[in-house]
Amino acid sequence: MSDKTATLTIGDKSWDFPVKAGTIGPDVIDISKLYAQTGHFTYDPGFTSTASCESHITYIDGDKGVLLYRGYPIEQIAEHGDFLETCYLLLYGELPTPAQKADFVNRVTYHTMIHEQMSRFFSGFRRDAHPMAVMVGVVGALSAFYHDSTDISDPQQRMIASLRMIAKMPTIAAMAYKYHIGQPFIYPRNEYDYSSNFLHMCFAVPAEEYKVNPVLARAMDRIFILHADHEQNASTSTVRLAGSSGANPFACIAAGIACLWGPAHGGANEAALNMLQEIGTVDRIPEFIARAKDKNDPFRLMGFGHRVYKNYDPRARIMQKTCHEVLGELGLRDDPLLQVALELEKIALHDEYFVEKKLYPNIDFYSGITLRALGFPTTMFTVLFALARTVGWIAQWKEMVEDPSQKIGRPRQLFTGAGQRDYSPISQRR
Ligand code: SDX
Description:
The chain has 18 helices and 6 strands. It is mainly alpha-helical. The chain folds into 2 domains: 5-61, Rubrerythrin, domain 2 (Single Sheet); 81-404, Citrate Synthase, domain 1. Strands 1-2-3 form a 3-stranded antiparallel β-sheet. A 3-stranded antiparallel β-sheet has the order 4-5-6. The radius of gyration is 23 Å and the shape is globular. The structure holds s-citryldethia Coenzyme A. S-citryldethia Coenzyme A is lined by residues 46, 230, 233, 264-266, 268, 292, 300-308, 357, 359, 362-364. Pfam families: Citrate_synt.
């Protein structure tokens, strides 16, 4: 806590509020007593200036384009680490020793199967259901099968539920994909690493051996690392708010998946690829840039802009590099969509509208091209985002549950509706 205070003056009255300092980043004004002392609420639609919690997990410096997981820069983790090591780091706060890593991988590996009866949920959906609809439904149903890890007051059960979520999301995501394309489910295989196992469950068929390409598996693993956590974004805030009522972790993650689906959030990777396909060729880019700048046109450049990053999203740089690696490995280096994306980025970054509004490519701009090259349909892109973000959601949920100061989230409002009035019988209404 810093010894600074913030003074609020309304009319002839003034109040002092404590200012809290973090280890890095902006200080906060603690307004938890504001209403009690002043009779006023604050008003901040979209929470552009409001910290909802204290956290030790992830830090973003939007102006510098910095992203730290438990203090480690995303570039270093993506370069030298792997996704399960990142999961351990986000959950426990430190990088694992070799023994801790081996034990964690083992514990996750032995939770990758789901209850056999859960496979019946899928047949209740139409084959052409969006896989995100399936994910919301099936993940929400997990609490009906794993009620022995829903008592959130028990640290043991919290950790088992966390492991189960991390371990089972690839299995459920792969099943949603297989169901979508009418192929049989492929069971997890314990001899594979996390990302190879996921690719195998998605792309293997019973009719023949499927060999996982190690370059593509490494790219998949890095894509999971990039999407793992991101402070208090919309879906993470949804998970925290759901968890603040005491809801079980599976239900909270299902709520996070529902929120992530929106095109302004995790659905942007699907929307960005659809946009690149609609643009089609480099010569049509000016038409779309003009539309993105037109106040009367709701069109936005998908994969561009960010609430926090007012500089290049560090994840987008790594994603662009991964995109080149995957396309190179698959002999797709001249993918026309990549040419459109590179040219669109170049034009936008020199256009005064985007420069003035500090709009840069975000993680979703290059992920769609990469995921399509890996063999996924656009409808699976946000499912992959949800798979990776599950560890961030669960780490933030655990931190919220274990925070002694946490209470049920219940925002207030600025009411501008009708004041109190008496009911009039319908016979008297004209
Ligand atoms: C993710 O929060 C997170 O951390 C999210 C995420 C994560 O890892 O969890 O990083 C993942 O969601 C990335 C963002 C993916 N979304 C998109 O790519 C969709 C396109 N982007 C926009 O919808 C928008 O940039 C947002 C939603 C991402 C951010 O919007 P903000 O912060 O609410 O900003 P804003 O809408 O107020 O925009 C500020 C100005 C506006 O113009 P003015 O009203 O000031 O004149 O910039 C304009 C906007 O019109 N603008 C854009 C634009 N994004 C913002 N104009 C054209 N194209 C865009 N993409």
